Amino acid sequence: MTETPLLDLKGLTKAYPGVIANDDVSLSIQPGEVHALLGENGAGKSTLVKMIYGLVKPDAGSMQMFGVPFAPAEPRAARAAGVGMVFQHFSLFDALTVAENIALGMENAPKLRDLSQQIRHVSDTYGLPLSPDRVVGDLSAGERQRVEIIRCLLQEPKLLIMDEPTSVLTPQEVEILFKTLRKLSAEGTAILYISHKLEEIRALCDSATILRLGKVVGECTPAETSARDMAEMMVGKLLQTPTRAGKTPGDVVLELKGLSAQSPSAFGMPLRDINVEVRAGEIIGIGGVAGNGQDELLAALSGEMLTSPGMIVFKERDVSLLGPTPRRAMGILSAPEERLGHAAAPDMSLTENAMLTAAARERLEKGGLLDWGAAQRFAEKIIETFDVRTPGPGNAARSLSGGNLQKFVIGREVLQRPDLLVVNQPTWGVDASAAAAIRQALLDLAENGTALVVISQDLDELMEISDRFAALNEGRLSAPRPAQGLTVEEIGLMMGGAHGMEVAHV
Amino acid sequence: MDLSAINPILFVAGFLVAATPLIFAAIGELVVEKSGTLNLGVEGMMITGAICGFATAVETGSPMLGFAAAAVGGAVLSLLFVFLTQVALANQVASGLALTLFGLGLSALLGQSYVGIKPPRLPDINFGPLADIPVVGPILFTHDIILYLGIALVAATWAVLKFTRAGLILRAVGESHDAAHALGYKVVRIRTLAIMFGGACAGLGGAYISLIRVPQWTEGMTAGVGWIALALVVFASWKPWRLLLGAYLFGGITQLQLNLQGAGVAIPVEYLAMSPYLITIIVLVILSRDKSAAPACLGRTFHASS
Fold this sequence. Notes:
The complex is a heterodimer. By secondary structure, chain A is an alpha/beta fold. Chain A folds into three domains: 7-235, Rossmann fold (3-Layer(aba) Sandwich), CATH 3.40.50; 240-331 and 418-506, Rossmann fold (3-Layer(aba) Sandwich), CATH 3.40.50; 338-416, no CATH class. Helices cover 32% and strands 23% of the residues of chain A. Chain A contains 16 helices and 23 strands. Chain B is mainly α. Chain B has one domain (3-115, 141-288): ABC transporter involved in vitamin B12 uptake, BtuC, CATH 1.10.3470. In chain B, helix 2 packs antiparallel against helix 3. Chain B is globular and about 65 Å long. Classes of the chains: A alpha/beta, B mainly alpha. At the A-B interface, helix 2 and helix 3 of A face helix 7 and helix 8 of B. Chain B: GO terms for molecular function: transmembrane transporter activity. Chain B: It holds the Pfam family BPD_transp_2. Chain B: It is a multi-pass membrane protein. Chain B: It is found in: Cell membrane.
């Protein structure tokens, strides 16, 4: 290419104590190009974009923008140079309005009234409907993302960085996002698109750079490369697809009868009249956009949140008024979404964390005294069975990487031989091979007669392991349907279609 | 008992004075908490301000210099809290309690040679004919400049938080320090400034007690006003005008119970003395049933991990 690239990275290196996050990474992006950055968790994608966005300073290497050296000392400088970033997490303020949130991300923000005008204008132009006066805490995930995108677009960026943008969207919302991105690209804005959803990258991106363990391991043209080839470049080995033998489900284990409950948190979603039966050996997959009652459903099933009598029946016994400990003793186990702080106590060791949920079922507690030896053996068994990478069970939960802790948290419940296992986002933020291992463990569990409720945002995952699929939308559960043969459109409709997208015309 | 001994005009004028130290301490703490930091050291910063202001006023003969020194003293003491919580990432509750204990001890030490001295008086502002208006004049126009400054400070804080970019950034840091950091705002620097502002305000409040309300120095003379200020911020739902209202309520009942004591009401003095604390908190609890107003990051330690 003879054109001067919009952004040219040469030999970027960044090391943290004990790990090289980026090792001699080079890539270049042309104006109007949609460039994918692929890699597993921990491959160094986030570090790389943080360097471009001025949040992290590289140890070595250089960046050039339009042929001019570019070394942003802070995000403000990067924004001034025309780099916009849509974050995966952590960049919106729940208690502030849309307009205030956007003003915070701008240099020289105009008066709020003028800004509201501009927000309306941009949202009309790009088909992203959004009211500037609403409080962000009340918005859906798709709408929150629109806030971030509009915040970037108002600064007329030359390069837009998107970090895992579609993980929280319904298929219809993804379609609209892609239309917006294609329109931007046609206007000459380059897009650096981070994702691990390969089919999306094949549909959207012009070129891709693949990172593994901080190094560039390959480049490709996504449209001409199969998803499987890209996945194997990312992981560096052949992927095992989880398998299971077909089996007829057994007796009804769990029955929800008109389950309704208020959410314990202010920005939560109440559960509304949920009716479903789960049988032994069956996996029911529950999809839906985050914040539609997933956390509340898990809390109601695990016993953290009590409901009115008669709503939750386990093996023909009403458990609605039992707390988590008696439910665990009966065989109802759960693994919530938030690893640090909910599923595991961050500053306690793995042995202690094993004790916390397994005391009753693994007989780690005798006459009120704790059997630490047995707890440690149990923790070691989890570490070994689930290939948890850690120096030993005495390490604090916080010291494990996300994927390893997730393997521990799921493994801890799986090894307690549950009769009913409820998991929320079992493979969130876990690399592809670990995710495959976790899914296989869930399938094996079903094989042995456990009933499973798997709540997830990852539709591919749900389609892969579920027998039946249902979607949560505004706290209501759609009627479950056999997962086999469901189309993306049908799933999208079950999830409630595109939130507020009816007025969008791109 | 003779209730007619209570002069309503003097009573109202008196409670404006009684409320002023509380207004200063509470509005400073409100700004600190809006930035996401919980500083329980208000009492310590107040008493330090009280002695710094008192000593400076006595030595220089200028009450205004005294107030300036009180603000500086409170702010300097708050730097200790900044160091503990923002640099050393210590627990905020424990650090705040330590600050209070330290401030009480430090002020006792500094104040040893000032017991029993009368400070120079800060003159009231001369409003000319305005002060001669019946009823309104003596109530509103016979005060010193610091009292008006307190009210102005509440108005200014409200306006800054609501209408300015600086206020928006401050609130944003208190709502989500991670998000603010990701956008490139200097969380620690903003919180440091907020804490120092809180310290300066608490110092002014303390000096108002030692230079104007009581005009003398005794150990521990702030007598828990700093703690009431902390409660006031919470029960006022972090809203400046509601905070002003709560402070006047507290000041009013304090003044009323003093007057009732003077009038010889047949209620034990202890009950009267505790009434301002009780009634203020009860009223504010009833007012503050909209619970969602607390800054989401209040009291949480921020560590920039990139």
